[in-house]
Specification:
- By secondary structure, the chain is α+β, with helices and mostly antiparallel strands.
- Helices cover 44% and strands 14% of the residues.
- The chain has two domains: 83 residues, Winged helix-like DNA-binding domain superfamily/Winged helix DNA-binding domain (Arc Repressor Mutant, subunit A, Orthogonal Bundle), CATH 1.10.10; 53 residues, Ferric-uptake regulator, C-terminal dimerisarion domain (Dna Ligase, domain 1, 2-Layer Sandwich), CATH 3.30.1490.
- Strand 3 and strand 4 form a beta hairpin.
- Helix 2 packs across helix 4.
- The longest helix has 13 residues.
- The chain is globular.
- The relative contact order is 0.12.
- It is found in: Cytoplasm.
């Protein structure tokens, strides 16, 4: 985890008049520390031991605040559950069709697609999303045995 980025996130919230509650601090810290792409329910389950009075609604409300502040992004991979991550750099996701494990990867050439699409259609491209599906190494080793 990049502690400097997390501090910048806390400062941004403070400068925008958003009070830093212990739950808000824990949720944002968890998102900045994890390499997974958790759902709100997964975040809740991970933190409920520390905050027994926290509800799933509290997690959702804080995720909305973080998203509106551009500190996290919400991801949908077609399974009807939003996932969240603090990695705001341009990157892509590869998803295991068997267990649902998600990993980030970067490949700068994919951004060339935006330039081609803009040139061919006249659209002003704002963003794109690339999802790649396969079977992760763990699932491959299980099916081989």
């Amino acid at each position: 985890m990049n502690k400097e980025k997390l501090k910048e996130a806390f400062d941004l919230l403070k400068n925008n008049g958003i009070r830093m509650t212990p739950q808000r601090h824990a949720i944002l810290t968890y998102l900045y520390q994890t390499n997974s792409h958790p759902t709100a329910d997964e975040i809740y389950k991970k933190l409920e031991g520390k905050f027994p009075n926290m509800s799933v609604a509290t997690v959702y409300n804080n995720l909305r605040v973080f998203k509106e502040a551009n500190l996290i992004q919400e991801l949908s991979f077609g399974d009807d559950s939003s996932r969240f991550e603090a990695n705001m750099s341009k990157h892509y996701h590869i998803i295991c069709k068997n267990c649902g494990h998600i990993e980030d990867f970067s490949y700068p050439c994919i951004t060339d697609i935006e330039k081609v699409a803009e040139k061919e259609t006249g659209f002003k491209i704002e963003s794109h999303c690339v999802e790649i599906y396969g079977i992760c190494q763990d699932c491959q080793s299980v099916s081989v045995e």
